[in-house]
Write a structure and sequence with these properties.
2 helices; elongated
């Protein structure tokens, strides 16, 4: 009996074991399935997150590329970084997406706000929106008021006309004590002399009076290069110049004319970019500054054909009342109390100007003033530096830090028919450039370089001025003009 009970118990235990294994197996399988599904889901989610993160980084890199493109546009020397229309919206395609950038200029502070948006493909599905990142920066701009001189012609009095017996004539008791370059024929009359060099004459040199001469035996000029013949007083012409017999005394005397190129004013460039000017009106204004133009049209569609000398009223640069026109890129102001004219940068007026207030005025800054018309300076001294007696002074004047350039394209009207610039009983300390003639009438004098078709010097003056190495940005003949310099970007957002 006992053995039978033991066998029966063993059979029941085996039946119980078979019933336990199945639930255990099912439980283990379920747990493994859950773990596997979770692992797969986690892995897939991680892959999607990683792909999205990569796309986000790519979109940010595209936005950075857009900002860099905008900065490159601002830094391009041929562009004016203070042109408010310089950065319209632009979309650029790159490998992996696009970047759209645009800029807005605060003209009162000269600061650009640049925004760039990068778009890259969204990896989470074909019908999802692109991944987008937007980056913003601020870029301040500094105007360029001066640059190194790259045309040595601005250390000369230069007459460009050719084709006449006397393309430049110097008379009365004028003594030229500064470098002189004449592309045609030079004639000395009355008691005119040349006491300093270099003297360069591409054509012939004619000295009609016994008192005329170049240098002296005891004080020769440093250089004289005469391309044509020399004819002195009542003597026959010599070619080449023989020196002493022709009353020409120079340490170097030959017929080898240096290959210098005369400067040429870029009227179109400065009509479009003068600041203040036709397309850059006054941001900060007081009094009555000039009308820079009256038919230029919209600044967003600039038109060089509108440079037509359309402002018929001659503007008085030094009136009885003060005025000011100030922009980030330049300034034209007059303080009637202190009698100081301020010209910074390059200013353009599509008309004519006059200075005629009597006495002595001074100017401040490095600047160029372009006019489509003419310039008249009358009964006034306009000086860079004035002494206690009200005279323009060479002492203390450094033209490399203070120099005003007047540039005129017209002729006639307020000045003689063939003149672009005329001085009448006046003195100007600075630089002059004229398409037509520069005429110094009566006892007028210019202390500085002059470049024109011909230059008519005064009656009893000595011309001389310091060497020039740094000049205003708008000075004619500068190459690769830099209008303004962008600063490094700041204020990153995004």
């Amino acid at each position: 009996m006992a053995a039978a009970r033991i066998l029966s118990l063993a059979r029941r235990l085996r039946r119980c074991e078979r019933g336990f294994v199945l639930p255990l197996t099912l439980g283990i399988s379920t747990v493994l399935a859950i773990v596997g599904t979770t692992a797969i889901s986690y892995t897939t989610s991680g892959a999607r997150t990683a792909s999205r993160s990569t796309a986000d980084q790519k979109a940010y890199a595209l936005a950075e590329a857009g900002v860099n493109d905008a900065l490159a546009v601002l830094a391009l020397p041929s562009n004016n970084a203070l042109d408010p229309y310089l950065l319209p919206a632009q979309t650029v395609a790159y490998d992996g997406g696009t970047a759209t950038y645009a800029g807005a200029l605060d003209q009162s502070s000269g600061t650009w706000t640049i925004t760039a948006t990068g778009l890259s493909r969204n990896p989470t599905g074909p019908n999802t929106s692109p991944v987008r990142r937007t980056l913003g920066v601020n870029v301040g701009v500094d105007p360029s008021y001066s640059q190194p001189l790259n045309n040595m012609a601005w250390n000369y009095i230069w007459a460009k006309a050719t084709g006449s017996a006397c393309d430049m004539m110097i008379g009365q008791s004028v003594n030229v004590a500064t470098p002189l370059y004449v592309e045609g024929n030079l004639c000395l009359q009355n008691t005119a002399t040349i006491s300093s060099g270099p003297l360069v004459v591409k054509g012939s040199l004619t000295m009609s009076q016994k008192a005329n001469g170049v240098g002296q035996p005891s004080a020769p000029v440093n250089e004289a290069h005469i391309g044509g013949a020399c004819q002195y007083w009542n003597k026959a012409a010599d070619y080449p110049c023989k020196g002493n017999p022709d009353n020409v005394y120079a340490r170097t005397l030959d017929e080898n004319v240096p290959a210098l190129t005369p400067p040429a004013a870029d009227w179109t460039k400065w009509y479009l970019n003068g600041d203040p000017g036709p397309y850059y009106p006054c941001i900060e204004k007081s009094g009555t500054p000039p009308a820079f133009d009256n038919d230029q049209g919209n600044a967003s569609t600039r038109d060089a054909t509108k440079r037509n000398n359309s402002v018929l009223t001659v503007f008085d640069l030094t009136p009885g009342l003060s005025y000011a026109c100030k922009n980030p890129g330049g300034e034209l102001s007059w303080n009637a109390s202190s009698r100081i004219l301020t010209v910074k940068g390059t200013v353009y007026i599509d008309g004519s100007v006059v200075i005629d207030n009597g006495g002595t005025d001074t100017y401040d800054g490095q600047g160029s003033l372009y006019v489509s018309g003419t310039v008249l300076i009358k009964n006034t001294k306009l000086c860079a530096v004035a002494d206690g007696s009200g005279n323009c002074s060479m002492a203390g004047w450094d033209p490399n830090s203070r120099l005003l350039v007047l540039v005129a394209d017209g002729k006639g009207g307020q000045v003689p028919a063939n003149d672009s610039i005329q001085l009448v009983s006046a003195v100007f300390q600075g630089a002059l450039y004229a398409t037509n003639a520069i005429e110094n009438d009566t006892t007028s004098n210019v202390i500085g370089p002059m470049i024109a078709s011909t230059v008519i010097l005064g009656q009893s003056v000595t011309t001389s001025f310091p060497a020039i190495r740094i000049v205003p940005t708008g000075m004619p003949a500068l190459q690769n003009t830099i209008y303004a310099q962008p600063r490094p970007p700041t204020g990153y957002t995004g």
